[in-house]
Specification:
Elements (H helix, E strand, L loop, with lengths): L6 E2 L15 H12 L5 E2 L2 E7 L5 E5 L3 E3 L4 E5 L4 H17 L5 E4 L1 H10 L4 H6 L3 E6 L1 H18 L6 E6 L3 H8 L7 E7 L12 E3 L9 E9 L3 H11 L5 E9 L12 E5 L5 E2 L15 E4 L1 H5 L10
Parallel strand pairs: 6-7, 9-10, 9-12, 12-13, 13-14
Antiparallel strand pairs: 1-3, 2-5, 3-4, 5-6, 8-16, 10-11, 15-16
Helix pairs in contact: 5-6
Bound molecules: guanosine-5'-monophosphate.
The site of guanosine-5'-monophosphate has 19 residues, from strand 12, helix 7 and strand 15.
Length: 312
């Protein structure tokens, strides 16, 4: 009887939640496959390539994905030329040893343009007009919002919180966060005047809540806390209405710019001292629909609104 040439790994993941991806690009690729209903397994099989005289495997290759519908293995490559050359060598060996196995090497460049076609991934991100650097990818946001959801659900167990969103920057975050909370909850929104929008007077509530918050467990949901002045003002306003509790969940914390010391109970990400856009955040109403958080180039930053000042 001949020795089996390939060894099956018993626990290979075929769902994103179960897989331990080595790189974020692999997770994105898995999402793309899911989107198109192409069944996949992550690193399901290791192919021995070389054995020592006593039969021990001394070189092996585990392709990243197996697409069972297509009977095809896929290996994603990085941009590091040294690694790519090594992969090519291993692939040649694999094809010689296992002629029936169908395997494709997907180069980073081709793979990024594939993702870009579907609106995901770095190639698409870099092509968006005016975007300079992507600070937080859509995948990273998704993962973190999920974590925040778990934490908040645990902390508010047995309660019925009222989420108060500060418009308009919070729209994406609120919509995603609330879907990760396994709690009976309500939502409400308010609009606060921004400094750029109203240089004549003090910060004020432009559009107030419709809910009475007295005795309620209120969670303020903010897009970004910068100097902390807006949030400080908001806290004072809401505390005066005597909620049972008042906490804050901010997606982004630009801590280095803080002027007023405000307590943040939940934070998605800390960001550096740069103007950021995307995932609800704007620059004169633009960029809100980007599915990631990015900085914009000087040219886009210098652009002014077409007409009238913008708020929030
Ligand atoms: P703060 O009062 O903490 O200085 O500012 C909070 C508000 O300023 C945020 O709700 C947001 O509307 C705006 N803001 C502060 N930093 C940024 C930023 O980097 N990008 C965008 N789009 N808005 C910001």
């Amino acid at each position: 009887m001949s020795r089996p040439l390939a060894q099956a790994r018993p626990a290979s993941a075929s769902r994103i939640e179960d897989a331990r991806f080595a790189h974020e690009s692999e997770e994105e690729f898995a999402r793309l496959l899911d989107f198109y209903n192409v069944r996949w397994q992550y690193e399901p099989r290791t192919f021995p390539l070389r054995r020592s005289d006593d039969g021990r495997v001394i070189e092996a290759f585990s392709p990243d994905f197996y697409l069972s519908d297509l009977d095809l293995y896929i290996e994603l490559t990085t941009l590091k030329q040294g690694l790519v050359t090594d992969k090519h060598r291993k692939l040649r060996q694999l094809r010689a040893l296992y002629p029936d196995v169908r395997i494709k090497l997907l180069h980073k460049r081709d793979y990024l343009s594939l993702l870009a076609k579907y609106g995901i991934g770095a190639a698409h991100e870099q092509e968006v007009m005016g975007v300079r650097d992507v600070l937080i990818t859509g995948t990273e946001i998704e993962r973190r919002v999920n974590e925040l959801g778990v934490e908040i659900t645990r902390d508010y167990a047995g309660k019925e919180p009222l989420l108060v969103g500060v418009l308009k920057g919070v729209t994406c975050f609120m919509a995603d966060l609330m879907r990760h909370l396994s709690l009976p909850l309500s939502i409400d929104f308010m609009t606060i005047s921004s400094y750029e929008g109203d240089r004549s007077g003090a910060v004020r509530i432009v559009q107030d809540l419709t809910e009475n918050i007295a005795g309620r467990d209120v969670l303020i949901v903010e897009d970004i806390v910068d100097t902390g002045m807006t949030l400080h003002h908001l806290r004072l306003q809401l505390e005066a209405r005597e909620p049972a509790s008042l906490r804050v969940c901010a997606l982004l914390d630009k801590r280095v710019r803080r002027l007023v010391d405000v307590r943040l109970d939940y934070v998605g990400f800390e960001v550096p001292d740069a103007f950021v856009v995307g995932y609800g955040l704007d620059h004169f109403q633009k960029f809100r629909n980007l599915p990631f958080i990015a900085t914009i180039g000087a040219e886009a930053l210098e652009q002014q609104p077409a007409e009238g000042p913008a708020a929030e």
